[in-house]
Automatic annotation (TrEMBL):
This is NADPH-dependent 2,4-dienoyl-CoA reductase. Residues 378-646 form the FAD/NAD(P)-binding domain. It comes from Aliidiomarina soli. Its cofactor is [4Fe-4S] cluster; FMN. One of its GO terms (molecular function) is iron-sulfur cluster binding. The gene is fadH.
Length: 674
């Protein structure tokens, strides 16, 4: 079969070696680096992606020394015994004709321990520790440690290294006036500030020789005040090329930047414009990155000459076979990354093992295995939401006869509401993928059908899986039955008319989604130029950090109050890496976020609340209730009374903020053992 993605599958000749295609698996810290038996698990993880067709893999960041570690027990490579462990990984990858580079990352002031070092003693806003300013001797020693790490990587069988020079880590800290206030030869002018990365590149090249891939990850837009300007980015790119870099990879934004760069509301391929700008200046291959999650967008970036390679990290968590499926001309079979961050980055920042909401097997390749069954069972799954879909597909894949029932006319459950939220358009892809998987695995789908315990008993299923989801929690407030009171399903499912002034009760994920839905006329995610202006990104690069002096105000058709009983900050329970984006989005639209609210009563003209001991009437046209959910499992007791083996998964088991991550994992885990 001829692939329609001709640019994506052109080999890339690096002179001394050739990459089989233009796909680079971007660096991701998974937590396996520090886990017990982690190198064997990493070997399986990376081998799956190599087998899946990736041309070049870059590992998670590994420190060149103790003080550069991200955490007190973070990974480093500097001793002979490290080499043997890493060889487990490289051997596994090389069995599948892919190449792999080790990323060398010194955390600098981003280190989450008290021994951090930085060019200047300036604390980062995202860690509690203030770094010590590096002495000149420490700088020279760190440069040698980078070279030592690269040599160890070469001995371990890696095909190259990536020097992490972006995202606000140590090298980036040397480059920008924001964090480099030195007055010696390592500070001051840009010529002085860029000596540090160039010295590292030079030392590595001398240590490993010419026939070893050296990727430099260049911060092309910092998205923070006092970051790079465009001339400096170009100057450093050219200098890195001249000093020995084989490939220039793209970095977008510091971790402390208040501009989203990878969450689901970021448009696809939103930053390829800056890679295109730098590519004009360089001879070595340039890699585009961030929110490239389909072969179509990857192919377009390459075909338009915006980059020589594309970097995808989370999309290869979501589907290790992404590249093979694209090459086979079967993009509909790809399990698309929805950029939710819930199981990958959110896990890593909580020191938990990364995985993937839509692919719970990611990073669990040796533990959550879907082996063919010895004896097939006849299984009924009631409920075609995320939990039911996941179980049905995995169980059928293993060889069981699976019947999936839902009273609705389409599969997807609560995902059908989530996909309507502006900025969450990616959720369409998960439903599309599951529909494809149902066909491939031979699940027998029965939609528009309400099952009873009797009908399930009559059909003689061996076991029944209840994935019947949740029901909204009733609001125990006087006036809750008034006609202007709506539930979130009235708004998102039934599309009932909502007035210009709205009070939203409940500020969890659903409350935020409903508020976003009510305050957005057109999704900026689908209009990239508008999205850039709303978030203050300057595509002309007139200012340092590529920041506009003033962002674009997004039109808001409604006045909304988003309220919660809790005393904590509104939205405190949202995802660690995406919650701030949701809060800032609503703040930009003027949504009034109220905590410590006591709901007194709902009246014809609005809702009476109490805050700080003071009563207040919010005059609103509608009150929308997003006050939580309860498990919905109407068949459980009847099935159990009939002696039918019954399993409960997803929201029917635990109704926690419509937790698709837990629901899909629970479905997969049950399917693996049933």
């Amino acid at each position: 079969m001829t692939t329609p993605y001709t640019h994506l599958f052109q080999p890339l000749d690096l002179g001394f070696t050739t990459l089989r295609n233009r796909v680079l698996m971007g660096s991701m810290h998974t937590g396996l680096e520090e886990a017990k038996g982690g190198f064997e698990k990493m070997a399986a993880f990376y081998a799956e992606r190599a087998k899946g067709g990736v041309g070049l893999i870059v590992t998670g960041g590994i420190s060149p020394n103790v003080r550069g570690r991200l955490t007190p027990h973070g990974s480093q490579i500097s001793h002979p015994w490290h080499v043997k462990k890493h060889k487990i990984v490289t051997d596994a990858v090389h069995q599948h004709d892919a190449k792999i580079c080790l990323q060398i990352l010194h955390a600098g002031r981003y280190a989450y321990h008290p021994f951090s070092l930085a060019p200047s003693a300036i604390k980062a806003p995202i860690t509690p520790f203030k770094p010590s300013e590096m002495s000149e001797r420490q700088i020279e020693k760190t440069i040698r440690h980078y070279a030592r790490a690269a040599k160890k990587a070469q001995q371990a069988g890696y095909d190259g290294v990536e020097v992490m020079g972006s995202e606000g880590y140590l090298i980036n800290q040397f480059l920008c006036p924001r964090t480099n206030k030195r007055t010696d030869k390592w500070g001051g002018s840009f010529a002085n500030r860029m000596q540090f990365p160039l010295a590292i590149i030079k030392a590595i090249r001398e240590a490993v020789g010419e026939k070893f891939i050296l990727i430099y990850r260049l911060s092309m837009i910092d998205l923070v005040e006092d970051g790079h300007n465009l001339d400096e980015v170009i100057e450093l790119g050219k200098a890195a090329e001249a000093t020995g870099a084989t490939i220039i990879n793209t970095g977008i934004g510091w971790h402390e930047a208040r501009v989203p760069t990878i969450v689901t509301s970021v448009p696809r391929g939103a930053f390829s414009w800056i890679t295109a700008r730098l590519k004009q200046e360089l001879k070595v291959p340039v890699v585009a990155c961030n929110r490239i999650n389909t072969p179509e967008i990857a192919e377009k970036i390459l075909a338009d000459g915006e980059a020589d390679m594309v970097s995808m990290a989370r999309p290869l968590l979501a589907d290790p076979e992404f590249v093979n499926k694209a090459e086979q001309g079967a993009p509909e079979r790809i399990n698309t990354c929805i950029a939710c961050n819930q199981a990958c980055l959110d896990h890593v920042f909580k020191n938990k093992r990364a995985t993937c909401l839509v692919n719970p097997l990611a990073c669990f390749e040796t533990e959550l295995e879907m082996k063919p069954v010895a004896s097939a069972k006849r299984l009924a799954v009631v409920g075609a939401g995320p939990a039911g879909l996941a179980f049905a597909c995995y169980a059928a894949e293993r060889g069981h006869e699976v019947h999936l029932y839902d009273k609705a006319s389409e599969v997807g459950g609560q995902f059908n509401y989530a996909k309507q939220i502006p900025g969450k358009e990616e959720f369409f892809e998960t439903i599309r993928y599951f529909k494809q998987r149902l066909k491939e695995t031979g699940v027998q789908v029965h939609l528009g059908e309400t099952k009873t315990a009797d009908s399930l008993a009559d059909e003689k299923f061996d076991e029944v899986i209840l994935a019947t989801g949740v029901k909204p929690r009733d609001l125990a407030i006087e006036g809750a039955d008034l006609p202007h009171v709506l539930g979130y399903l009235d708004v998102l499912r039934d599309h009932k008319e909502v007035g210009k002034r709205v009070a939203v009760i409940g500020a969890g994920g659903i409350g935020f989604d409903v508020s976003e839905y009510l305050t957005t006329t057109e999704s900026p995610t689908l209009h990239p130029d508008e999205w850039h202006k709303i978030w203050g990104i300057d595509k002309t690069y007139a200012n340092r950090g590529a920041l506009l002096t003033q962002s674009l105000a997004e039109p808001n058709p409604r006045e909304v109050y988003l309220m919660q009983r809790k005393e904590t900050k509104v939205g405190a329970g949202l995802g660690k890496t995406s919650g701030w984006v949701h809060r800032n989005t609503l703040k930009k639209k003027g949504v009034k976020m109220l905590n410590s609210v006591t709901y007194k009563r709902i009246v014809a003209g609005g809702i009476e609340i109490e805050r700080d001991g003071k009563s207040e009437l919010l005059e609103v046209d509608n009150v929308v209730v997003c006050a939580g959910q309860l498990p919905f499992r109407p068949l459980q007791s009847e099935l159990e009374s009939k002696g039918i083996s019954t399993h409960i998964i997803g929201g029917a088991d635990v109704a926690a903020e419509l937790d698709a991550k837990r629901a899909i994992r629970q479905g997969a885990e049950l399917a693996a053992r049933i």
